[in-house]
Amino acid sequence: MRHVISILVENEFGVLARVAGLFSGRGFNIKSLTVAETLDPTVSRITLETVGDDLVVEQITKQLNKLICVIKVVDFQEAAHVEREMALIKVSVDERTRSEILNIVTIFRAKVIDVDSRSYIIEVTGDEEKINAILNLLKPLGIREIVRTGKVAMQRGAQTLSAPARVEPVELKGKTKEKAA
User: Fold this and answer.
1) Could you give phi then psi for residue 166, rounded to 5 degrees?
2) pTM summary value
3) What's the distance, CA 121 to chain centroid?
4) In the prediction, which pLDDT does 160 show?
5) What is the mean pLDDT of residues 128-148?
6) Is the dihedral angle over the CA atoms 7, 11, 15, 20 positive or is it negative?
7) Distances (CA, A) of 7 to 15, 108, 146, 154
8) Coil, helix or strand for 15?
9) Handedness of CA 103, 104, 106, 110 (dihedral sign)
C-alpha cells in the first residue's frame, strides 16, 4: 500500500539520516523525499512517499514518534489531502518539433523556462499522473534530461500540520519560569 507521510522535525544536523534509517532498517524504500524549513526556521518538514504493508508503516510511525527530534507525524493515507510534485524536463528542439512541444506545454499548463536553439527546459507541476503523462508525450520528441522533486502534500481544509508553540525560559528575580513563545 502507498503511504505519503509528513514529519515535522527539529531543524538540526543528522535528523534526516535518523528518519531515513528507520525506513531502511525495516527494508522499506523511500520512493520520494522532500525536506524544507517551515515558517519556523527551527522546524523542518519532511514529506516522503513509501510503499509497504500498513502494519509495518504503522510501526515505523510509532518509532518516528519516539525520536526526540520528531515533533509530529501524519500519514496522509486516510486523510483528504493534496499532493504535488514538480519536474524540469529538457527536450531537444528543432524546426519540426518546436510547435508540437509548445502545444504540449500549453495543454499541460506547463512553462518553458529556458530556451536554447537546440533545447527547451520545461517546468511542470502536478500530481504523479500529470507528470507521467507529459513525459510520455515528450519522450518520442527527444527528452534529454529529467529532474523531479519528491512529493509535497498538505491536508485539505482548515487542519494544519504545525509545531506547537515553543516554551522559552524567562528569568524573574532569580527564578526561572517558562513562557510560551
Assistant:
1) -75, 150
2) 0.80
3) 21
4) 83
5) 97
6) positive
7) 11, 31, 27, 12
8) helix
9) negative
What are residue 9's DSSP bridge partners? 44, 70
Give me the pLDDT at residue 124, please: 98
Where does the pLDDT of residue 15 fall: very low under 50, low under 70, confident under 90, or very high at 90 and above?
very high
Strand runs labelled E in 52-80: 70-75
What is the structure's pLDDT at 168? 56
Helix, strand and coil in the chain, % to nearest 5? 25, 45, 30
Residues 6 or more apart whose CB falls under 8 angstroms from that of 132 comprise none
93 near 135, Cβ under 8 Å?
no
- pLDDT at residue 9, as a whole number: 95
Q: What φ, ψ does residue 159 adopt, rounded to 5°? A: -70, 135
Beta strands, E only, 78-166: 81-92, 111-115, 119-126, 143-148, 152-155
Is the confidence at residue 50, as pLDDT, over 80?
A: yes
What value, to the nearest 5°, has the Cα angle with vertex 24 and ends 58 and 131? 85
